[in-house]
Design goal:
Two copies of one chain form a homodimer. By secondary structure, chain A is mainly α. In chain A, 70% of the residues lie in helices and 0% in strands. The first copy, chain A, is elongated. Chain A starts with 8 loop residues before the first helix and ends in an 8-residue tail after the last helix. The first copy, chain A, binds a DNA duplex through helix 2 and helix 3.
DNA sequence: AATAATAGCGGACAATTGTCCGTTTGTCAA
DNA sequence: TTGACAAACGGACAATTGTCCGCTATTATT
């Protein structure tokens, strides 16, 4: 039988991504519309929507490179700190995540919008929570928390649950509010979060 | 001079709210459009948008009664537990908030959408964080946390900051994901959150 | 090369959100 | 009462999001 695949499909995907990246950096993620991206890239609406059903999906794709870098950083740090106490490793990971959230705030907020609204809430899939970035962060935090608890250094809790809560606490709009309204710097926020979410779990804190 | 106020303005406001409430309960918050509400109520688009710029604002108004009840419950509990340890009072407040979030999930999610997206992010106002409900919850948590810390029962932290983080951790979509994906009941979630966010702050935990 | 078949492109179209402006309507002064 | 004034109503209009379907272009087959 015939199963033809267009050879130019991949090129269009890259054209769309590149156009979106350019427009986002020039005008800001919020103000650029899907229609505008398609128009500028010179492709039909459907051509884009078939790839990215919402702006959030597009952003998730765009952030993928940056996220790969974050992942490499975290993995590197963990390897380098392999012999360090779990607490230290947890703090290192946390710091990286917060820096990343701060740097990629605009894309992350757009992704969050898609998560919160839309029929995602009805889908079984739950795009965001099943995305590779989320799963990686959750998995990494969970295993560190589990190691800390299993080695008896902390109080008792459910590592997977706690990891979800910690990630929720790092929602971009909350961090932005803390920095806009209260003037906290990124370092302030990191320190405060460690004092509030991580250290208290450890017996050795006092 | 003349400063006339239409006497029917208030009636229209109530008509809009009532219509919205009816449509929401009948069809669900997500599927009902602003246009549909205006059409059903028999008022112009602008008449509604002049009062509620987004669906989230409307939901914030609709939830106000329920929130008044929550507030009364919390205030009542705190009065009743006036002599109880701070830890116990914190847990009681937390429990109420989570139950409320669970019961009013659909309205709260709609409110969150408006918060996360939209030009709210550019506004100085930041509607949501300045809303009476948020300020009340944040204030109540902050004062309890401050009391706990000042009385030397807990580790050291910034009460106001921590209160923000705690509320962020209770985001409706996160709680929904925990219950949908992992099957946690409301009581499970309450217990876990207490073990993760509250008890560890206290010296006396162990 | 010519042909058949289909993956998938593109623009028109529908639905929703948000804005603007001509007109109505209630209030106050005479 | 009547007239003037402005608060505020309502629907038309613009912008954005999301869908549908006719048509093109690509590839396997002969």
């Amino acid at each position: 039988m015939v199963t033809p695949k267009r050879k130019d499909a991949q090129q269009l995907t890259e054209l769309i991504l590149e156009t979106a990246r350019d427009l986002f950096t020039q005008y800001g993620v919020d103000t650029v519309s899907m229609h505008q991206i398609a128009k500028t890239a010179g492709v039909g609406q459907a051509t884009m929507y078939r790839r990215y059903a919402q702006k959030g999906d597009l952003c998730l794709e765009l952030i993928d490179d940056q996220f790969g870098r974050l992942r490499a950083e975290i993995d590197g740090q963990l390897e380098q700190l392999a012999d360090a106490p779990v607490l230290e490793r947890l703090i290192a990971v946390f710091r990286r995540i917060i820096m990343f959230t701060h740097n990629e705030a605009s894309l992350l907020k757009a992704i969050h919008v898609s998560l919160v609204q839309s029929r995602c809430l009805n889908d079984d899939a739950q795009q965001f929570f099943c995305s590779q970035p989320y799963l990686y962060l959750h998995g990494t935090l969970t295993s560190l928390l589990k190691e800390a608890m299993d080695s008896g250094q902390t109080v008792s809790f459910d590592p997977a649950f706690t990891a979800h809560i910690m990630i929720a606490a790092l929602a971009p709009h909350t961090l932005q509010h803390l920095s806009d309204r209260y003037g906290y710097t990124t370092d302030d926020i990191i320190d405060q979060l460690i004092c509030t979410l991580i250290r208290p779990l450890f017996h050795s804190f006092e």
